[in-house]
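Researcher: Re-running this chain for the archive, since the previous output was lost when a drive failed. Same request as before.
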Amino acid sequence: MEKLGINGQSNSDCPEGTPSLIDSDDSDPRVGPFDTNYYSTPVAPQITVNVGSYEIKHGGFYSFSGDTTLINFIITNNGDAQLNLKEEITGEGPIYITGINSDSFNVYHEPANHIAMDGGQDTFTIQYIGEDWLSNIAEIRIALDEFDMDDFAFGLVHTAQDCPGLGTIEVINGNEEWSGFQFKDHGVRVNDGGVLTITGNIGFVEDAYLNISREEKSILIAAP
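Model: Regenerated structure tokens:
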């Protein structure tokens, strides 16, 4: 009589391929290698994204300035299962660009669709094709083919060297909503009676700020 593991799978069902390419989508929960008793423990991938030694958090930002045109990103899988990426939107690869100034950025190099476990790595490159003197932002998304993981997303910002917005103030008197990935290169003041709803990810350049005025009191949120 054959012994079965999680979800009734035998050791002949998993792993698929070589042990270094364990498929994390074999079952729910994920199934790892089977032991001699045909039982396994759940496994999962873990994604981190870096530019050099700088780690970009999911929902965070990475900014650059000047005449830099190519930015190289490193995807690392520190989990104990293969990380699966999927072709999305363009049908060309797992990296896609959306957002306010998406036409100022281009996917120059795509990663493979599978990244091995235990420190496996691959890279992708984004090319900035906008004007050096303009500040632009786009949302970069890594499409994950993992049933219980959201796509990895972050804001990529090209800041104009002189930050032309500094010294100006954006005034909010009515109702306004900030959604998606945005950045501010100037001061923002919400006057008494104004309502600002933030549902997205907002970054402020150095010396920019958000000032909220309420009944003769003021709350100042300043970028370092």
